[in-house]
């Protein structure tokens, strides 16, 4: 399972970076500077501006989070199922409820890592469009900065993203 998660994270990292930047671009990129949104266009833009490293921004966060996610999810799912089965005869409902419980707990536990990854992935665009200085270098350093500067809850302000194919 961990090997499959690591392989998937590695192979899909460029796609995940593109996905996050497409989702976030409207928060930072001036409308006049936004352009194409095709996958190949985004991949080229990231490569041109940041090199191959750009496709793997936040990779260490993902590599920490994926095994943590599944390591927390399965025991929570199994525990919830064990608690619910004696009280409910409708097995599909038990499985769905256990999955919701497992997912909820897992999301709470892993959210700080996903927030750090989003910050690491979006930082290039903050630098490009807002003139921000590079602030984040690693997952735990990013988490530490967020807690120090914004508190445990972090900032509600969305991060940015990238225009494509100028």
Topology:
Layout: H1 2-24, H2 39-50, H3 52-55, H4 59-84, H5 91-130, H6 139-150
Quick take:
The protein has 166 residues and is mostly helical. It has six helices and no strands.
Descriptive notes:
By secondary structure, this protein is mainly alpha-helical. The chain has 6 helices and no strands. The longest helix is centred in the middle third of the chain and has 40 residues, at 91-130.
User: Over all CA atoms, what is the radius of gyration?
Assistant: 19 Å
Strand content: under 5%
Helix content: over 70%
Q: Provide the succession of SSEs.
A: HHHHHH
Structural class: mainly alpha
**Biggest beta sheet attributes:** none
Stretches where pLDDT falls below 50 for ≥5 residues?
156-166
Helix tally equals 6
What is the mean pLDDT?
87
Overall form: elongated
Beta strand count? 0
Distance between the termini: 40 Å
Oligomer: single chain
Question: Which features does this protein show?
Answer:
166 residues, disordered C terminus
């Amino acid at each position: 399972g961990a090997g499959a998660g690591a392989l998937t994270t590695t192979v899909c990292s460029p796609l995940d970076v593109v996905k996050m930047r497409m989702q976030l671009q409207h928060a930072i990129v001036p409308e006049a500077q936004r352009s194409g949104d095709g996958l190949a266009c985004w991949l080229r833009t990231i490569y041109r501006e940041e090199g191959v490293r750009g496709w793997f921004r936040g990779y260490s966060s993902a590599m920490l989070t994926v095994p943590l996610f599944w390591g927390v999810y399965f025991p929570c799912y199994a525990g919830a199922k064990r608690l619910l089965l004696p009280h409910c005869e409708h097995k599909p409902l038990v499985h769905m409820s256990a999955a919701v419980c497992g997912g909820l707990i897992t999301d709470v536990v892993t959210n700080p890592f996903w927030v750090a990854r989003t910050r690491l992935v979006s930082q290039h665009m903050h630098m490009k469009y807002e003139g921000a200085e590079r602030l984040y270098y690693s997952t735990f350093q990013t988490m530490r900065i967020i807690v120090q500067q914004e508190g445990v809850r972090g900032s509600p302000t969305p991060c940015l993203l990238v225009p494509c194919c100028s």
